[in-house]
Design brief:
394 residues, 9 helices, four-stranded antiparallel sheet, 19% strand
């Protein structure tokens, strides 16, 4: 039985030490939109076919019985459930997982990379990835979770356990109906759920309109890839809630504001850089921001490394680099860990969505490039990944 709703849970700001306000996760579950694939194919030991019933029901049975599953069964059923059309959120709810410890009844729970309260689907995803690692002993840690799309016939790689389908499912064939359907449902869900979480709205400013949230929510930004808390505000573009962006992007896009972006590489022990850091300065603010970092997970998140480096306390070696070199590092990270189309995500190339193109020459100065505020927003219309069927906010 698949749960039809996800009840918001009280969460902790400080890993359990202090209660925070209830956080609403708008990734609700809609099992009616899950259609079975023609063939269920598993590429690890243990095959699952359509004639053996719903793989998610079988997977959930392990959790309800609190019975340890073999790595073969755990990974095989999880992949088969994805092939059958179930999301990671639906799988998490169907298995009755309400806290990280619930995963340990069936498989090893791996601490998720995103430390936000709505981390359970990501925890489920990473636990499956860890089980695959134990089975296959690949050359890299955290191997991707792959599955067969019965609609387009391609092997699909899930990059994460949460997010927009067009941004986290890599490998669908051009015009894949399943991807189009799932992204359309995701857009519709945001358009229906987000307005109810707003207590007030500012007057529109060109294409932008900033809204004040009644409580913090957990969302992802289609422009910069950030997934986590939207504490106080969310901004719509041309009134479309499906493409609502975070406050960092609102600052970048405000009319009349000029944004200058600089980039740094982060490396350790003389090895290839493991991350790119961007730092932005807005024309209406005297000081730059503290910086955001992108690693092999391919999304921007806040980092203290620039601050630590200014104090002489950063463990990594930071070097200021031109934008073109930043793109090259991110393209290498994407190619090392993910299918080629991951390098075309809107926030990976270019590293900051821009209208002027910046200076990509290898010898270009590292002082930064200018992003004029306002004007046309081309990232709304660009194809984020090969073969993806985009909505207006893809």
């Amino acid at each position: 039985m698949i749960c039809k709703a996800l009840v918001p849970l009280a969460v902790s700001k400080d890993l359990g030490r202090a209660k925070a306000p209830t956080v609403h996760c708008i990734e609700y579950l809609d099992p009616s939109g899950c259609a079975g694939a023609d063939v269920l194919l598993c590429v690890v030991p243990g095959r699952y076919s359509a004639g053996m019933g719903d793989p998610l029901e079988r997977l959930a049975g392990y959790f309800h019985r609190k019975e340890k599953a073999s790595p073969e069964d755990f990974t095989g059923l999880a992949r088969a459930a994805r092939e059958a059309g179930h999301t990671w959120s639906a799988m998490t709810a169907a298995c009755g997982i309400t806290e990280p410890g619930d995963m340990n009844d069936v498989a090893v729970a791996i601490q998720p990379f995103i430390l936000v309260p709505d981390r359970l689907p990501e925890l489920f995803y990473q636990s499956v990835s860890y089980a695959i690692e134990q089975l296959t002993r690949p050359a890299r840690r955290y191997p991707p979770v792959t599955w067969h799309c019965g609609t387009c016939g391609r092997q699909v790689t899930d990059r994460a356990g949460a997010g927009r389908p067009i941004h986290v499912e890599h490998g669908h064939g051009p015009g894949c109906a399943r991807l189009a359907r799932d992204q359309g449902a995701d857009d519709a869900r945001r358009r229906a759920a987000l307005p109810a979480l707003v207590k007030a709205s500012d007057p529109p400013c060109g294409q932008l309109q900033r809204h004040h949230l009644a409580e913090p929510i957990i969302e992802d930004c289609p422009r910069c890839g950030w997934r986590g808390y939207f504490h106080e505000h969310i901004t719509t573009i041309d009134g479309d809630w499906a493409t609502a962006v975070c406050d960092n992007c609102y600052d970048d896009l405000r009319p009349g504001v000029t944004v200058t972006a600089c980039y740094y590489s982060a490396s350790s022990g003389g090895r290839e850089p493991f991350a790119v850091i961007r730092q932005r300065t807005h024309s209406d603010c005297e000081f730059p921001d503290t910086g955001q970092v992108m690693t092999w997970r391919l999304w921007w998140e806040h980092t203290p490394m620039l601050v630590e480096d200014s104090w002489g306390q950063c463990d990594a070696w930071l070097e200021k680099i031109p934008r073109g070199q930043a793109e090259q590092i991110m393209a290498r990270l994407a190619a090392t860990y993910w299918p080629p189309e991951a390098a075309t995500l809107p926030w990976v190339r270019p590293p900051t969505p821009t209208r002027d193109g910046g200076d990509d020459r290898p010898g270009a100065p590292a002082e930064g490039h200018v992003l004029p505020g306002g004007g046309r927003l081309p990232w709304l219309h660009e194809q984020p990944c090969r073969g993806a069927v985009t909505s207006a906010g893809g």
